[in-house]
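Suppose a colleague, Dr. K., hands you the sequence of a protein chain of 478 amino acids and asks what its three-dimensional shape might be. Before reaching for any lab equipment, you can write down a predicted structure in token form. Begin with the sequence itself:
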Amino acid sequence: MIQQGAVGDLEAHADSAGTLEKTPTNMTDAKLGQTETHKTDAVFGEITDAGPDYRNVGWIGTTILMMKTQVGLGVLSVPAVFDTLGIVPGIICLLIIAVTSSWANRIVGLFKLKHPEVYGIDDAGYMMFGRFGREFFGLIFSLFFACVAGSGMLSFAIGLNAVSTHGACTAIFVAIGAVVGWGCGSVQTLGKMAWIAWVGVISIFVAVFSLTIAVGVQDRPAAAPPGTVWKSDYKIVNNPSFAQASSALTSLVFAYAGTPAYFNIVAEMRDPRMYTRALVVSQSITTALYITIGVVVYYYCGSYVASPALGSAGAVMKKVSYGIALPGLIVGVTLSTHYTAKYIFVRLLRGSEHLSGNTVKHWVYWLSCTLGVAIFAYVIASAIPVFGSLVSLVGALLGTLLIFQPMGCMWFYDNWSEGKEKKSLKWILMVCWSTFIIIGGTFLTISGTYGSVIAIIEDYRATGGSAAWSCADNSNST
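The predicted structure, expressed as tokens, is then:
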């Protein structure tokens, strides 16, 4: 470890992300057993071999982390969205949201390059709106990803119920998801978690493609009435109510809701200038997957498509699909737990040597953060009735608010002064686009929240809600 005032010259260079790398150049440093690479990061401070390397994610690892952050619960709801909207409007809406979210994701990378001191969306909020912006966006970020983690725990429990034919109390399965998510989510750096993301991405991909093949070769979906000649009742264009359409659009936004976590990912990249490459690959594959799964599954299942979609192909394939998807579901819990805990952890220890050093205080704070997030997510998953509709509400109220409006404001923050000097056509078009993102995001937030509230009310009327900490099999409806 390089000490202050150590003998020897140091050659230093700074990259565009605000990292200062120092490499010993004489034999004295080598004899003293000092680290070969010493980095000073604008967020994490001094990074040496004595502590976790928070700047060690390559562009391929970044791609995988992005894909797993996006592809999870969202892909399982796309066929049901197409059932609500119809195939053609569903694809058009999905592509529009894919393009707008890709632009928003791109803004995250550009903002990080211009402002190396930014770690999370709360830092961007502070720069734009002061202390209120920091606390507001920090709170929304934490609540959103904690709820996503809770949703993942519940989905993991559904999977265990499906595979085991309700072999244990559902509350126990949710608790297992919480414990595993906490353990895996306590890995210190995203660089080390990239391999976990690989497992999750492969698991989800294989599960959904197995489902896609199964619905294509079977004679009817699992929920279709038996004893009749089956013909899919898919619709090219459907006529949903405003509330139904709003809820469907919110589900598509939720499928691309990884954007706020991209701040955390780019902050741990070795070279943030490779961010755009990773983003293009990730968004392209994700969008192609969503369209393929959505169209094929809905085409063969029609209005009898299940949500989540893994239950659409019958009892046997339901077990197979969920069995394959279980690692992917738990990795989703892991990443959501990690993102939330890391945000809190950095807020608590930023500017301290304990942030990047393997000290007792470092580990106490880190494990307390991951444990606290896991417990909070577990309570949400177990205690709140009508959880599926509630997650839709959280996605509408919090997810859209994190994906669109802040990114439009970030563009204005970095580029508004440019127009005072020269109002070019490009600048005028970008002003119009950023304004559209802010207004459109606000509309989706309001309309999606309305649609989700209507869905919760209808769910209560139909079923009376669900019991807290229930042992009942929650896989029957899927």
